[in-house]
Amino acid sequence: MAQVVLKEIVKQYGSLYAVNNVSLTVEDGEFVALVGPSGCGKTTTLNLVAGLLPMTGGDVLIGDRNVTDLDPKDRDIAMVFQNYALYPNKTVYKNLAFPLQMRKLSKAEIDTKVMDAAKVLDIVHLLQRKPRELSGGQQQRVALGRALVRDPQVFLMDEPLSNLDAKLRVQMRTELKRFHQDLKATVIYVTHDQLEAVTMADKMAVMSGGFLQQYDSPKNVFEHPVNMFVASFVGSPAMSLIPLEAINTGGKIALSSSEGWQLPLSEANSKKAQTASTSKIVLGARHSTLQLHKSKESNSVPGRVYTVEPTGDVTFVQVFLGGATVIVSLDPSVDVKSDQEVWIEFDQERLHLFDGETEMALTDP
Amino acid sequence: MSMVSTAPSRRRRVKIDPWRWVGRIFLLFLLTFTVLPMLWMVLTSIKSQFAAMQYPPQWWPAEPTLQNYAKLLDPNGSTGQEFLRYFWNSFYVSMVTTILGVIVAVPAAYAFSRFTFPGRTFLFFSVLLRNMFPSVVFLMPLFLLMRWMGLVNTHGSLILTYLTFGLPLSIWLLKGFFDNIPIQLEQAARIDGATRFQAFFFIVMPLSTPGIIATSIFSFIGAWNEYVYAYTFLSKQDSMTLPVGIQRFFTEFATDWPGLMAATFLMSVPVVVLFLVLQKYFVRALTEGAVKH
């Protein structure tokens, strides 16, 4: 296993930058998730690491080798594709053996390695079948097996779970995580599902518009999103963002809404708010940090319930507030109805402030 | 109980669909239309010259004979020598056309399907340009060209011509085929240690066999049946192909109908055999991509 370094990699299609100056280091044995909405450049980035696309600029280092100009076959990587890309005309055994044959291993060696991988993934009984005779989960295992047999330096995975049904996806997610822990493998994993990234990865790289937005542990990304995009992308349901106006009330800052209410900020938050380039400030809050009151309380602001979505464990309530909708999670026992007047209390310790112009998170000066 | 009572009532509900019968009758008509001439060809080929010319016609040969076939296939007789010569010429021209066609069409179609390069769309549609005109339009220009290149009376002239006529369809058909093979398969192969060419050769080629076979059949049949160009380009008797050669059975005073029919029958044998053996690939090729797998 090895470290992977991306140095200012760029991929340009005509005037469009699919990947724009992305630099990041994946440590040896680390599980890194590239995450972002469709078209954000995450798969392109993965293909650049794999060498399947020519790079416009930048360098890729695997281990201590600069592989920028090497063919995919010489990079010592393995890849699992979204559609598994199993060779349809070959049996499972031959699918697993193909990478070894290409490396000119002896028949006996191939046989041992294929059997080992098949045992690990519990697909020994499928070896003589063709891919089309397998279920989605089994195909997924075979695809993983084909990556595994070669003992590569890096595993690249391109949305490997997105073709599975919901239940199997959760199951394979745990298996993949376990697989990574047991093998101490370096994994770069592309997904559009932030939940997969958060649950599996040691670090996540959030991408948007070809740019790397934030690269940190899921916990840090979740707790300290660097900008509004990351804040709204990571976490489910998404962080609620309310555009407000900052006004100075004798040294302290209060956020004022077009509806007329004001939310005075704590001292620490006031300092953050003062660093903004404009008076427009976006207030961000996760559903779990908000409290819903049925009657007016101090430090709470008025809103109106839009919808109530019970999920069983927890009920999500969408509330119209200051021209935006905020999502609050409630215990299912609490009874609220649509169009009911409610009051929302923000947790000053756990709210997020963003610059209304630059959309960047406001931090301590 | 309910199961027992529903079964017969469901059966009763199946109506006789008049359109289904109209369709069947139409198909029967088509079948007769195509099979009858062939049947007559076979029947005539086993008649004697006298019986073939009788009026009213002899529907069933009174004295069936294989004499005509024996004459055509006898390597010692003059007719046999001639016929076998034409047959071989046709086979040679068609085979070389087919093989060269595949050699050119496969990489061309693959390039159109997988690579982006300047002028790709233009080139792809210009491939079709030839097909926008009836082939006779090119007869004289091509003849002049062939004469200028000294290729008149050689099989090379025909092979070149048939290639230019057959390639557009081959390339389009094969491109459709390659388009349907997920690019991830090649990417996987390249990551698994294959070069670009190996990925193509080991992974893409086997998957596109039906397409390659279908295009081969197309170009083989095209070359095998072609008459006008063969008639124009080749005037030496020993280089003639079958469609032209068979014509020699028409003579000014007496046409040898049974012999002609036997020759025609023998000429259709390779095509029919080719179709029967490879038809499952052929059908797959034409319906490929019609439904998502």
TrEMBL record, chain A:
Q: Does the keyword Cell membrane apply?
A: yes
Pfam families named in the record: ABC_tran, TOBE
Domain ABC transporter, which positions?
A: 4-234
Q: Which UniProt keywords apply?
A: ATP-binding, Cell membrane, Membrane, Nucleotide-binding, Translocase, Transport
Q: Which InterPro entries match?
A: AAA+_ATPase (IPR003593), ABC_transporter-like_ATP-bd (IPR003439), ABC_transporter-like_CS (IPR017871), ABC_transpr_MalK-like (IPR015855), ABC_transpr_MalK/UgpC-like (IPR047641), Mo/tungstate-bd_C_term_dom (IPR008995), NA-bd_OB-fold (IPR012340), P-loop_NTPase (IPR027417)
One annotated GO molecular function: ATP binding
This protein's source sits in the domain of life called: Bacteria
Family statement: Belongs to the ABC transporter superfamily.
Could you identify this protein by its name? ABC transporter ATP-binding protein
Q: Which organism is it from?
A: Devosia rhodophyticola
UniProtKB/TrEMBL annotation, chain B:
Keywords from UniProt, A to Z, are: Cell membrane, Membrane, Sugar transport, Transmembrane, Transmembrane helix, Transport
Q: What is its main location?
A: membrane
Compartment annotation: Cell membrane
Q: Does the keyword Zinc apply?
A: no
Q: Where is the ABC transmembrane type-1 domain?
A: 87-278
Look up and give the membrane topology term: Multi-pass membrane protein
What are the TM regions of this chain, as residue ranges?
Answer: 21-43, 91-110, 122-146, 158-178, 199-224, 257-278
Job of this protein = Part of the ABC transporter complex MalEFGK involved in maltose/maltodextrin import. Probably responsible for the translocation of the substrate across the membrane.
Entry similarity comment: Belongs to the binding-protein-dependent transport system permease family. MalFG subfamily.
Entry protein name: Maltose/maltodextrin transport system permease protein MalG
Q: Say which species the protein is native to.
A: Devosia rhodophyticola
